[in-house]
Amino acid sequence: ENAFIFRNTYALTPMTYPSFTSLMTGRSPFDTHIYNNGRIYEDKNGKLISSSINGFNEIPNTVPTIATILKDQGY
Questions:
Q1: pLDDT recorded at residue 67
Q2: Is 41 helix (H, G, I), strand (E, B) or coil?
Q3: Is the dihedral of CA 45, 46, 48, 54 positive or negative?
Q4: Helix, strand, coil fractions of the chain, as percent rounded to 5
Q5: Residue 30 to residues 25, 53, 74: CA-CA distances in angstroms?
Q6: Are 47 and 5 in contact (CB under 8 A)?
Q7: What is the arithmetic mean of pLDDT over 55-66?
Q8: Predicted TM-score (pTM) of this structure
Q9: Per-residue pLDDT, 53
Q10: Is the CB of residue 31 less than 8 Å from the CB of residue 62?
Q11: What radius of gyration, in Å, describes the C-alpha atoms of the chain?
C-alpha cells in the first residue's frame, strides 16, 4: 500500500558485482572502476588483465556506500 514501484529500471551492466556496487554507491562502473565479476589489474607492461581467480576489486575508499552514509547519519 505504501510502497514505491519502479517501472523503468535498468542495470548498468549485466554482471552481479558491478551492478551491486552501483546500487550500493549510486555510481556507475566508470566511477568505481569495477567493470566485471573478477579482478582487473595491470601487468608489468601496463596491460590490463582480468582474472576471476584473484578475487574482486574493492570499492575505492573515496566512494561512499549507502551503508557508510546511513552509519554517519546515526542508523
A1: 92
A2: strand
A3: positive
A4: 30, 10, 60
A5: 12, 22, 30
A6: no
A7: 82
A8: 0.65
A9: 58
A10: no
A11: 15
The grid coordinates listed for 16 are: 552481479
How high is the pLDDT of residue 49? 74
Nearest Cα residue to 67 out of 28, 33, 25, 30: 25
Of 36 and 41, which is predicted with more confidence?
36
Half-sphere exposure of 74 (CA within 13 A, CB side): 0
Cell (9 digits) for 24? 550500493
Most confident of 20-24, 45-49, 59-63: 20-24
C-alpha cell at 62: 573515496
Q: How far is it, in rounded angstroms, from Cα 13 to Cα 31?
A: 13
DSSP assignment letter at 54: S
